[in-house]
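Changelog note: in this version the structure field was regenerated for every chain. One regenerated record is shown below for reference.
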Amino acid sequence: MSESTEYHFLDLLIDDCEDGLRQVALASDNLTIQWRALPAGGLREMLNLLRDRNGDYLQLNVGRLFSDAAVFLVRRETIISFKVTSEQRPGDLVLMHLTEATISRLEDALVDAIEDWGP
């Protein structure tokens, strides 16, 4: 009897832009998002948020999608999500919950990215 192995991919791409800001692209099984203006120390803060599931609510600003939309990594109890909000008309534009497999792969990718790019 053969045993099937389920594979979950995740690509985390980081690039320095001409204006000195970092651009990030994340692609996984069911999620693709790209943003810019990753704050200094943002990779380490993202990793810390993923690893610490204790606490009620934490919202970490990880950059900008457009000139008027902020991207957040959010922890609500044990649920981890990416959220995009508009500054023009306050409110959520997009809310994407991450699966446990995606969270695990993102943790691994962030560890590698911190080694290559710094925190």
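Spot check on this record: The first helix runs from residue 42 to 51. The radius of gyration is 15 Å.
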